[in-house]
Amino acid sequence: MADQIPLYPVRSAAVAAVAANRKRAAYYSAAGSGPGGERHNRYQLEDESSHLDEMPLMMSEEGFENDESDYHTLPRARITYRRRGIEWFVCGGWKFLCTSCCDWLINVCRRKKELKARTVWLGCPEKCEEKYPRNSIKNQKYNIFTFIPGVLYEQFKFFLNLYFLVVSCSQFVPALKIGYLYTYWAPLGFVLAVTMIREAVDEFRRFQRDKEMNSQLYSKLTIRGKVQVKSSDIQVGDLIIVEKNQRIPSDMVFLRTSEKTGSCFIRTDQLDGETDWKLKVAVSCTQRLPALGDLFSINAYVYAQKPQLDIHGFEGTFTREDSDPPIHESLSIENTLWASTVVASGTVIGVVIYTGKETRSVMNTSNPKNKVGLLDLELNQLTKALFLALVALSVVMVTLQGFVGPWYRNLFRFLLLFSYIIPISLRVNLDMGKAAYGWMIMRDEHIPGTVVRTSTIPEELGRLVYLLTDKTGTLTQNEMIFKRLHLGTVSYGTDTMDEIQNHIINSYSQMFSQGGGNSTGSTPSRKSQSSAPKVRKSVSSRIHEAVKAIALCHNVTPVYESRAGVTGETEYAEVDQDFSDENRTYQASSPDEVALVQWTESVGLTLVNRDLTSMQLKTPGGQILTYSILQIFPFTSESKRMGIIVRDESTAEITFYMKGADVAMSSIVQYNDWLEEECGNMAREGLRTLVVAKKSLTEEQYQDFENRYSQAKLSIHDRTLKVAAVIESVEREMELLCLTGVEDQLQADVRPALEMLRNAGIKIWMLTGDKLETATCIAKSSHLVSRTQDIHIFRPVTNRGEAHLELNAFRRKHDCALVIAGDSLEVCLKYYEHEFVELACQCPAVVCCRCSPTQKAHIVKLLQQHTGKRTCAVGDGGNDVSMIQAADCGIGIEGKEGKQASLAADFSITQFKHIGRLLMVHGRNSYKRSAALGQFVMHRGLIISTMQGRSLSFKTFLIWVLISIYQGGILMYGALVLFESEFVHVVAISFTALILTELLMVALTIRTWHWLMVVAEFLSLGCYVASLAFLNEYFDVAFITTVTFLWKVSAITVVSCLPLYILKYLKRKLSPPSYSKLTS
């Protein structure tokens, strides 16, 4: 792939290496001094030690060519030739200088202060050492003072509008006045008025949404009790109470909860795009306090790191000073409640640590930009070309006069006389056309619920090259369905689940009949198995073991909502006594786990209760089985597995259960000959696979493990490595129980929609915050990656050397999709931005997982900068807003994750499958019609020329200029030849021929006729005929009603239009368009 793309090497000379290191140190020390410096500090200079500088990082077997450019210069800044002096200034330097000055003024006005770590005293905002930003949400582009200047600047920064303004202002000068003022100012004023009204309405809507969010009331805990406070009035240090299903107003540290477990679940879909519920743990010191008011009786504070972009990490400490000795508790991400998340269980109390623009959600949201369509930019360029032609024509006219008298005034008057070549009605017609296209999109019954929020860029939908889409809720429904259970020798699908249910019922009925009806017993067969010789287990016992392992090995909590009509009871009242199925729901940090537990419930083994130390299962016969939770090893992206050690309360047996990805579990379980093959089969079906295994432990084995595990957790140095080593000591020779397959249901018709987009030449990138395995699985099941294509999973890289080696491996792959994690992507973009983007753009599909909201927006901007192509971003959550706003065209989907993305987008749809029709039909038609409309409006100024109805470009522009010269010549010389004796009636002659030619050329351009078009043609002709009666001073009615006049005007019109009709017929006959070949 792209053999010609070199990765620029480091100079091998020692002097060059030293110089490069000095430059690097200066660059990173300067970058690290600002607010964003911490982002660079993660990559220390140890990663770029001298041995890496001298390392021969070869891109191919032939090696590198020598390149003397500094390796560490950013790739986009590497240019072979730098213009200097006047040439640099003329070729864009003036724009760079103006932009730099504006940025400097903005930075001076804003005076962005440096972000610092802080000490926050509980309930004492007055003790804060610094003044922190207000906790208000502000999505408005302008304020009352900047609205008019801002809108006017956005309009007149284009040459087209600026030209109209200069021409209109010139009519205030008596020496230059050539017409009525209203003929110039009325169209310009209409365009400005419509634009300002539209912007004002949008701005007012944004203001109302912000006001609604900022006015939400929350309970604030004070010494005098609870008081109601607006969200915008919350300060750092306040103790805020947030109820269930209420939005968290600011970034907080979790102090207390009404849940007896000391933990709660929150929904983070508006922050990271994942609808999985996240488990949060309260600070143990404050959770143990007897009463809520005791928070004011202790002297405690939270030390929090400075505000950062990372939504997956936090470092801080909680300190209580009035105890002896002082209590110090470390704080991590599980002790935080970020703004814009929603409490899913219980009531929580937290202390505010970050507010307003310092919250994680706001820092990960970019400011919206004013989007300008490529068509408008092209029209702007064509206007400049027309202006140059206009100037040249005026100079010619002044030259023919011999530069007599005040020739410069005559030059300006000629410019005004010929100004109709650039029609002032162009913007009016285009804006009205775009409004009509938006109306047609919203009225389309095939895509119901579609809303056009930005009416200025509908034609952009037809010019897209890159489509960047979210995964969760966009391509998928995020609803997991259990599809397959494989035991090695037998496989069960959705149509044979009743067999599993029968095996479970029979197994537990035999167990309790043998155990004498003991309702708290467990399987007695396990005792006999431990002492009996090892024999092949029956299918029934294997199913029983597998289902029990799935029902126990998870992090799911059952929740019982209060029934309707019950008052005066807490939400979770009588949980231990009431295990009724109708009001039970499951909470978990992953929908996979919920799907597995719901499946075990469907086959007869139900999870009915769980706390931090135990869980209870209900058998098909209604008996309750109790298990003590001894240890839990949560799932991590590094380990790719989770485990749990439980003790059966009735038999005191200790069992270690584990489940995880096949790549992690294959080396842990005992030898088998079917796991790898079946995992591949399920993956090809688009199922997410989990391998389930177990290991029985004696009491002595467990005590030994617990002692070593506790010591490892208390160690200060290399704690993570030591803990992992202890856990791995028991992850040996585990018994393989089963392989499960779960399907993440796709949105309706996602596969044909993606196939249609791919066939249209659109490259699709999937950007998701989800795990690498999940993203890869969805890419396969949605056919984003076809079954015949290979997938290159980019290995994790942390420094330049690793990134270079991995890029070497990736470069040698051909026609394969790329899957890369956010951390690795950041390293590659730091050192090899240009090379990486160029390689990735050649892939048929790219999947970026574990992406933060700002990374998504950054990827969109990189594609725009490096390719110059139009991009479209599709998402449905608050974490997609930055990406949607950065793209040339943003599409939001209204779904389970709320309306935040759809409100911020340019177009809002209800299902992903609607994108196909939105782009292929409405986008293409809007572009074609806008191009044709722009050409039609221009051709009125180009001596009544015409267009071919193709896409707008300089080629078609020159074609219809030539045609306009032909038609203008025919109209002029035809009138001179045929009406030599009646030349006094030239106005009637020319205008009649113009109208007929115009109507015929419109008919020539139309591809598909509609009855409204026929009405419009005859209505236009009728308006001209009716105007003859009111314009007696210009038209002689007696003259134009003669037969001679009529046939001569008809002859001129036919001569000007008939050749074009003949050419069009021959072109369609000899070179028909592709769609006609398909339909014939």
TrEMBL record:
TM segment ranges: 182-201, 385-405, 957-977, 983-1004, 1011-1031, 1037-1063
Any one GO biological process: phospholipid translocation
User: Which cellular compartments is it found in?
Assistant: Golgi apparatus, trans-Golgi network membrane; Membrane
Q: Where does ATP bind?
A: 470-472, 593, 635, 659, 688, 768-770, 850, 856, 879-880
Q: Which residues bind Mg(2+)?
A: 470, 472, 876, 880
| Every P-type ATPase A domain range | 226-360
Quote the protein name from its UniProt record.
Phospholipid-transporting ATPase
What taxonomic lineage is listed for the species of origin?
Answer: Eukaryota, Metazoa, Chordata, Craniata, Vertebrata
- Primary gene name: ATP9B
